[in-house]
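Appendix B, example 12.
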Amino acid sequence: MKGHDAEQIAASYLVRQGLKLVEQNYRCRFGEIDLIMSEGQILVFVEVRMRASDAFGGAAASITTTKQTKLLRTARHYLSGLQHEPACRFDAILMTGTHNPRIEWVRDAFGE
C-alpha cells in the first residue's frame, strides 16, 4: 500500500466518523498536510502514518518533533489564507499492516 492509498483510506474512515473533507495534500514551502477536515466548527489537520508493523515504535513514533514543527508551520500558512481563523486541532491516523490495516485515530495528537 502506498501513501496515497493510506490517505484515501484515512479520509474515508474520517468521513464515516462524521468529518468533512476540506482539502487533501495541502502543500506549501514549509511542508505538506495530508488531510484537512472539519468537524463541526473545528478545522482538523490530519497526519496519516502507515507502517507494516509495530516494530521500531510503529506509526506513532514516526511523527517526530521535527515533523510536528513542519506541520505547525504548514498549518499556519494555510490559516493565513483564510478570512477568519477557526478553532483547530491536529489529529493523527495511525495505520498498521498492509492488507486490511488496523486504524487508530488519535485526536489532539500534538499542538503548540
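The first strand starts at residue 20 and ends at 28. The radius of gyration is 14 Å.
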